[in-house]
Amino acid sequence: MSHYYSEEQDVESNPSMFTYRYESYSLELKTDSGVFSKGGIDYGSDVLVKAFLKDAGSYPRILDVGCGYGPIGLMVAKVRQESLVDMIDVNARALSLAEENKKNNDIDNTRIYKSDALDSVAGTFDAILTNPPIRAGKDVVSKILDQSYEFLDGGGALFVAIQKKQGMPSAKKRLQQLFGNVEIVTKDKGYYILKSVKG
């Protein structure tokens, strides 16, 4: 059986639409079977978007790792129009939906492409955001955290959404090892937003 972190989906397509809002901004998003959080934006992703958009930092180049059908990257791109947002995922159906959602919401400051973790990423970033695919296993999550460090510019920040019961303590420990710093930016209904800055 395929999972939302599989490249190809064998579940039957059953598309639906929903509206995602942040303050005065809204996105009309198409979603489908075989993608993460089909019914609407995942709570952790929403907490991540809010925490990032409230951050005072200047982030001209942003990477959304595991973008799915696009709620995080597209909302960030819509609010921070001066930034360029790269959005990556391994799931072909999710990427197709993200492209459609980008077009339907008239967002032109994003680039959407396929990448297994950050394997196909080029260039470096001022901020990386991820709500990592916990069900893909600890090795995949660790790979995303490790690679994110490599793809950040000096002074760049990694923002991670993770639940305490799904490995927050070990992710926090790994970030401390990698970056030498980690901060809990937000705590909301069991979700933690961790932030580490590259020295």
TrEMBL record:
Gene Ontology MF terms: S-adenosylmethionine-dependent methyltransferase activity
UniProt feature coiled coil, ranges: none
Protein known as: Class I SAM-dependent methyltransferase
Alphabetical GO biological process terms: methylation
Keywords for this protein: Methyltransferase, Transferase
Matches recorded under Pfam families: MTS
Domain named Methyltransferase small: residues: 27-195
Species of provenance: Macrococcus equipercicus
InterPro entries: RsmC/RlmG, SAM-dependent_MTases_sf, Small_mtfrase_dom
